[in-house]
């Protein structure tokens, strides 16, 4: 089971600051624009990336609801954007680093239930099922994630895996 969603597997040791968009080994991260703006968004909202999670990943827009943040985080997992995942993680629970598993391909997101998390709420939960492939095998993760709003921005706080 991938534990990166809830941060259990990630190191909490402090790391030296690094250039944004660059991994510690010097490898350059794929930029959010590496997915065409007209491609179907990985969160499966039905919209194209350029009208959905793309602007949120680039910082040109904020997710107005907890569910939108959840979707943008799923897309970030699917596209391999650890910096966005860290930036959208609440500082109180954010790991120091996040190593995404290259062997894992996130494929499907289903939002099962959303409680609060609207533009005027300060807390919200989103229950979802995410499907992935790893080494030819299909797996799924079911989690209820908690989000909190700070100003206009929603942040992921933590999750309980069902
Ligand atoms: Zn999207």
Automatic annotation (TrEMBL):
One Pfam family hit: YchJ_M-like
Residue segments, region Disordered: 1-34
Biased composition (Polar residues): 1-13
Ranges for domain YchJ-like middle NTF2-like: 65-159
Family: Belongs to the UPF0225 family.
Record HAMAP family: UPF0225 (MF_00612)
Protein name (Swiss-Prot/TrEMBL): UPF0225 protein IV501_05500
């Amino acid at each position: 089971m991938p534990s990166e969603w809830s941060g259990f597997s990630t190191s909490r040791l402090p790391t030296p600051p690094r250039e944004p968009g660059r991994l510690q080994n010097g490898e350059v991260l794929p930029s959010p624009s590496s997915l065409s703006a007209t491609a179907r968004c990985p969160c499966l909202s039905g919209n194209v990336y350029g009208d959905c999670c793309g602007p949120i990943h680039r910082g040109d827009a904020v997710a107005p609801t907890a569910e939108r943040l959840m979707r943008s985080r799923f897309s970030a997992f699917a596209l391999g954007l650890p910096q966005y995942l860290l930036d959208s993680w609440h500082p109180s629970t954010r790991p120091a680093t996040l190593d995404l598993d290259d062997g894992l391909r996130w494929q499907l997101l289903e939002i099962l239930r959303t409680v609060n998390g609207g533009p005027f709420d300060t807390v919200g939960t989103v229950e979802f099922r995410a499907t992935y492939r790893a080494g030819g095998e299909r797996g799924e993760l079911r989690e209820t994630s908690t989000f909190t709003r700070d100003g206009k921005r929603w942040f992921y706080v933590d999750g309980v895996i069902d």
